[in-house]
Amino acid sequence: MRVAAFFTVPFVFVACSSAPSNSPPGADADGGASEAAADGGSGPHSCEVTSKGTAGVVLQGRLLLPAGPLDGELLIDAAGKIACAAASCAASPGYGQATLVSCAGAVISPGLVNAHDHTNYATQPPIAVGQQRWEHRHGWRTGNGGPKLPGPQSTTNAALIAAAELRFVMSGATSILSSGGVSGLLRNVASFKNPEQLEGLTGKTAYFDTFPLGDSNGTEIANGCAYPAVRSAGAAFADGVYAPHVAEGINAAAENEFACVKGALVTSRTAIIHGVGLGAADVATIKAQGALVVWSPRSNIVLYGNTAPVTELAQAGVPLALGTDWLPTGSMNMLRELACARSLSEKYFAGAFDDRALWTMATKNGSIATGFSDQIGELAVGKYADLAVYDGSSGADYGAVVRAGVEDVRLVMRGGKVLYGDSALTSALATGCADLDVCGQKRQACVDTPGVTLAAIESAIASVYPLFFCKNAAPAGEPSCVPYRDTYPAGTSATDRDGDGVLDSADDCPDVFNPARPMDNGAQADANKNGKGDACDPSPL
Question: CB–CB of 405/335 below 8 Å?
Fold first, then answer.
């Protein structure tokens, strides 16, 4: 194994408490410092090695198991798989030979799975878009229907991509479905990855399809399927899961994309990325076909002022996974994406998603979206020991993850191999890791990326973006997570509780954000015309 020493981050921006530059004036505060500042500091719970063994590891702490939280033990065998997850694993073979790690009071979670990102575009800081919003992705991509988004440029620079992955690792992530990747850090599961980027997973990889309609030239049509090249089912499903970008926008052209893929490309092996422009009938089709939707709330909000109809999808029983999209308009790590999703749920979706639901999006459902749920995504016997330990200072059980900051992450393992954690702990469990000061706390990171030196990583991020920010303030320039368009510029209020620009007295879903969209002819969506909007109607058809 090739392990390089890590470096001390040369700078850490700590943003002030004012609104980020991407936040429009007058809107609600969005999950910057306020979402993450509570219980700041190191937290009371960390891990320590209490007994050094010869093979395997036992972690003791609060386990987030498929059946629910449990104070217990997790036995990781020498192959990096979970051999036992129970109140006690003392009777399990190999227990006596394992290194015993006590994480009393800390929360042990499956590693987070980022179900959508373009790490090869982490080449510049977040783009300040101000009050500009678009109706379709081709607007900001090509300037069709609005000013073109400045940059960013794709890269093959392994040091830049490794830095992007390390940002996610430091938030507790262990896997990603991305258009860019390197080996040695996250598991990268897209079909065009090199096999070593699966980091030991077996099976067919996912097909990450940015242009399933061949429309990279900016083609937008509101009716019919005369796109440049609609992906064939044979090509889409030649590998594992099919993950296409579909309906990224709020106009008729965005919804029409779904109409042209739903026949053959939406199946139980499909993970639809974005799905902003979906209607009630589209949601019903997704449910009937057993597909899943990958939600990227922050990037959706800052680009379109709206996001996927997640309350409709949840009411229909469609699983939702979570993805950061990319650094230019999305979240820098999975904890910030969770913060955005939680803020939207609390302020705009009438609390539709509790901590456990959000956590599930970032763990089990993320693994389903990648097509590897049989091997990762849960703390279950036989699966790989992909996990993250959170100190619990931000909340109990699922809240310890959903409300955490990077300084709350005490240990990250991928297949039983240490990627990041407390210095004393990583020093005892791994070799070749080096010190990293994280918000005044001693951490170590272990990088195993061929051809990438730590000096190259340090140089690569110096002009781009830091590896982390402390949770007492929002990341510098973080894109807004406040729904905003010129029809709903002021956020929530006493007379517009859900902030969708429709006064409560006239709103067909007064507690659930459901603004009028161009694709719905400028009216709130109400497919069955019963006076109850689709966003809060359990039977919208």
Answer: yes
What backbone phi and psi angles, to 5 degrees, belong to 518? -55, -35
Establish whether the linkage from the previous residue to 24 is cis, with ω within 30° of 0. no
* Two structure tokens written together for 405: 């900051």
Fold adopted by 113-370: TIM Barrel (3.20.20)
**Residue 3: count of CB within 10 angstroms of its CB:** 17
Indicate the pTM of the whole model.
0.93
| Domain definitions of the chain by residue range | 113-370, 486-541
Positive or negative CA dihedral for 64, 400, 385, 323?
A: positive
CA torsion sign for 36, 37, 40, 45 is negative
CA distance 207 to 330: 22
Neighbouring residues of 187: CB distance < 8 A, sequence distance ≥ 6 = 174, 175, 176, 197, 198, 199, 200, 201, 372, 376, 386, 414
154 C-beta neighbours (distance < 10 Å), count: 12
Give 71: exposed, middle or buried? Use CB within 10 Å, 0-12, 13-18, 19+: exposed
Helices (H), 309-453: 310-316, 334-347, 355-362, 364-370, 398-402, 423-429
Query: What are the pLDDT digits (tens) for 457-510?
Result: 878 899 899 999 999 889 999 999 999 999 999 999 999 999 999 999 999 999
Task: Extract the tokens encoding 141.
Answer: 């991509």
